[in-house]
Task: structure prediction
Amino acid sequence: MASNRTLHAEFLKAWHSGEESFTMHTSGSTGKPNPMVWKREHMIWSAEQTLAAFFNGCQDLSQLCVLPLDKAGGLMQAVRAEVWKTPIEVREATSVPHLEGQFSIVSLTPMQLHHVVQSPQGIHRLLGFHTVLLGGGPLDPALEARLTEPDLLPVRFIHTFGMSETYSHFAGRIIGDSHGIYRVLKGYDWKVEEELLFVKSPTTGHQWLETRDRVRAEADGFTWLGRADFVVNSGGIKLSIESIEAAVSAQLGWPLTDFFVWKTPDAVLGEALVLVHTHLKTIETTLDWSFLPPYHKPKFHYHCPHPVIANGKWQRSASFAKSSFIDLK
Result:
């Protein structure tokens, strides 16, 4: 696999030669990563919307890139540097990123940020940034609360919302200042139909795109409820995977980097909930699951000592396939 700096050099060569299309890959968090072709004009347009929405058009900026350049987040950082005509330093994409130095902006996944805030050194290095753009997945409640503590108040954390099909984020919320509401960037049209979010912009070919996200429309944006394809139909009862994950994380103190809830075919229920985790010790049979509503308790437990992670996300199907069943009887 090519290094991030090699990928950046290849991008710059293509960009400066006037290349009109670029190929990147989706994250593959629910299945196989797929290639996607982006148009140059739409990449430029997306970068301009980010500059206007989050930085008031200011171009006295610098970026640190620690996301993979062959995925949407890293590639768009490189594009923004070219469009904004601002400096960027590219480092390797690792789960514990190297954040030394002073920069205006860094983009991180929640998993990367989780590892960074575990040490005083990591906190100190975060203070070298004005803005941290977070994307690629939800924040667990404990991590979000940590970002609002006094020692991190000088840093602006923006949890962004987007997908590969929209090239980049089309909404964002400032942690600690937005009551969980995502505000949509100018230039994007959006609507909600039966809790499903749709978006339309030049990046979608001016066609309505169903995001597969469940949201609640608010006066000045939307609140995210979960993924539509992360719903388990267990015995006729629809269960939200993200809601159960949030409850488990809050109650057991497990970060979302340590586990995930998934589904498996079941002869009786149709689909059954499963809990996949990285903990070396099996879950005690005496663990009190009363904090979950009826029918929300995972039926099966699996241990995954070697999770499949890409771009800071659990690759759920691949990780589940590598997991071993834990018999709690």
